[in-house]
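User: For my dataset I need records formatted as: sequence, then structure tokens, nothing else. Please produce one.
Assistant:
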Amino acid sequence: MFGYITVNQKELKFKEYDVYHAYYCGLCRMLGKKYGLSGRFALTYDCTFLILFLSGLYEPDEEQIKGKCPLHMVKGTCMTNNIFSEYAADMTVLLAYYKCMDDWKDERKTTAFGYAKLLEKGYQQILEEYPEKCEKIRILFDKISACETAKEENLDKVSGLFGEVLAEVFVYKQDEWEDEIRRMAFFLGKFVYLMDAYEDLEKDKKKGNYNPFSFVEQNEDYEEKCRSVLAMMMAECSREFEKLPIIKNVEILRNIIYSGVWCRYERLQVKKEE
């Protein structure tokens, strides 16, 4: 994932941000515990949302501790861990590994290949624990790569593949909520892919890289269409989210879904106006 699924801190209460940050620090701790320093480098706010979401839905037992880390050596920091912290750590490393290998295959980025090598041992452990999930996600990333190589013009098709990736990640187990979770994550994944493409358009054009928005950029209503498509994805995502019986930390989750995911977009608009 690409760092879009985060909170709008300005609209959170201090107490809510403390709760959110404790899950984030707990994920960092779990990544270090399971995968060492290389795992911690893969830390994202996106998978913090994954923990918050699954914790809100299933309400597992939690461990809250105060500890120190390289960023909080003096005062320390609060950390919240539960079974989903471990799962999110696994998915963080899995996605980071596939993303690096995708960057290596598509753009021959040596830094991405080097980092993938650092994550490879952890990846093999995850592969043993979640063989079916890993295989589905690998196939989807291969399809995304094939679409990008073929310069696929259909926004819905290529973004839908990443939507399926996120659906696999967010479905922790098969139960009565699987369909709603899968649909919610599918539209969230489409939003993330399209938002990343929208943000990277100028950079991709300069480098000659594939970008699905390059085929519609010249349209007179380009900006309006982009905003409309992104809004449509999050409208569908939020519709499915609201069907789920989540009470715990629901205001933080709503902050992310209704506001946080738009923070990068709003900053881009300010840059464009300047």
